[in-house]
Each structure stands twice: as structure tokens, then as C-alpha cells.
Amino acid sequence: MKKLITMNVFLRSLVLWLAFMLILWSVFAFGWATHPQAWNRGIDVQQETGWPVFWFIIGRNLLLLLLIAAGNIFVRFGGFTPGLVILFYQALAIGWTAGTNGFMEPFPTVAAANAAFLRIGLWETTAYVLVCAATLPKSLLVAADFPAKAWTETRRITDLRFDPGERLVLGAGGLSLLFAALSEAFLLLA
Hints:
Mean pLDDT: 92
Helix content: 55-70%
Structural class: mainly alpha
Oligomer: single chain
């Protein structure tokens, strides 16, 4: 994991995205295999749309992005940060919810759920990964291991600087979230 910190931001983004998707889809497959009855109860419902949905998606995901970024920026133990823990918890939670069809409005088929993921969820999760990748090496307090006995590196918030590649990745994460919210709220790609 320490090598992940020193990687180029674009390679780090790719590695984190692949790991996130591997976990998400593995958990999805496990949930689907262990709960096949979950896919017999879904009905097609009228999807809510409009600005309230847009702002709900933006608000909920901005909070999550803030937690991931803050977890990375605040502290790092070896190669692990609270932001990484939050990111990979999301992969587990999303995979399980999707695999067991545990949505507020269950999907009628796996194909319908996967189509919704490609239209919305892929972009939301990509935003999570990109924000995590850009902020991962920016920790203010760094310890060699957990629990921290001593800080091997300390910085102030004013020392925080993002290089052009990291700013580009953060921007791509923001655009990804914006696309997800627009797609959900206004049925783009439906």
C-alpha cells in the first residue's frame, strides 16, 4: 500500500478504480448467489426525477467525498488512511446492496440494476475513487504504523498543495459526480 502513495496520480487512480470495482463486483456476485430470491420481488416503479433528485444526489455524494478526502488529508498510518477505509467500505456496501437487491425500490431484474449502475452508479463510484486518488498522498499527519506511537511526518493545512495532475483528477471526479446527478435527475441515457 505504501507504493500506492508514491505512484503517479493517474496510475494511482486506475489501480484504485480497478480494486474498487473488483471488490464491488465480487461482493455483488456473492450477494446475488446467496440471495437469488431477492430478484423475484422487484417491480417496475415510476422513477422520481427533477431538481430535488439532482440536489439529493449531489448533497449525499459531496458528504461522502468530503469524508474520503478528509480521511486522507488528516492522517495516514503506513499506507492506510481513513479515506481508503471509507472508499473500500463503500465498495463492500454498494456491492452487497446491489447483489441482494436491497434498494429502497428493488429492481425487477439484474439487467435493470446493472443498466442503472452503468447510467448512474459507475459515475458516482468513479468520483469516489478519483477524489481518493488525488488526496491520498496529502496526509498532514503520517505514522509508520497503526496505532501511531510517533508521527514520522507532520504538515500544516497551509502546506497542502495539489499539482496539476491531481487538480485534473479532482476536476474529473467532480464532473463524474455532476454527470451522475444529471443522469439520475433528468433520465439521461435512459
